Amino acid sequence: MTTTLETVTSADGTLIAFERTGEGTPVILVGGAFNDRTTVAGLATTLAPDCTAIAYDRRGRGDSGAGAVYSVEREVEDLAAVIDHVGGSAAVFGHSSGAVLALEAAARGVPMTRLAVYEPPYIVDDSRPKPASDLFDRVRALIADGDRDDAAELFLTEAAATPAEVVKGMRTDPFWAWFTGLAHTLPYDIALCGPGGALPAGRLAKITAPTLVMDGGESDAWLRAAARAVAETVPGARHVTVEGQDHGVLQQPDALRGLLTEFLR
């Protein structure tokens, strides 16, 4: 199956790289923290027989530029630029903080035919601690000091609520280099989710695109609660649990194929 690499210029002049796979209705795939276009490539291949899957590098990742100054508005403009480039309107799928970005874009009027999100990491109950208000600054300071290891660990333990002993084991794995390689983008994901990861109910209530909200049957309780809260907030949204899956569902893209091809086409 043919995949082509292209770029589009965002509103602030930043080049955003993306790959197209397949033919048919465009579906934009938006990854979350520690993700670039390669981590959604498996899902792109899974969906491509039924659509044109667009996997893109969010700013600062892969082959995309970083821009001079980060803001959530710039990331929304990046997604809007990709959508405009592939036809002016498209279906969108977002995972984790990529789901938050997709929801923010939809709430701000970026044209989407349909929107599917998997476990946007809002914090809507007391099943986990809320991140401290200075998490963005602390992660950014570690990155500025060149301490990518501790920046990644801090994000995982405080933003993602990963147990410290689990992160300690992760740091000894060769794959840890992937996490540290993308550590400079972690403040972007913290900014997207907002102070304390609070659900922006007022903004989400403005979404008009038909919306599917998914969670995994094996996911942490706080992520499942967030998915339900989003589905209850976005007008007309549908909530579905993908049994047997957790937050790492992108590693099992076939688990999403039926739901997404039925909903997004």
UniProtKB/TrEMBL annotation:
The organism's place on the tree of life at top rank: Bacteria
Residues in AB hydrolase-1 domain copies: 28-256
Any Pfam family: Abhydrolase_6
MF-aspect GO terms: hydrolase activity
Stored InterPro entries: AB_hydrolase, AB_hydrolase_1, AB_hydrolase_fold
Alphabetic keyword roster: Hydrolase
Keyword set includes Hydrolase: yes
Hydrolase listed as a keyword: yes
Protein name in the entry: Hydrolase
Annotated source species: Amycolatopsis regifaucium
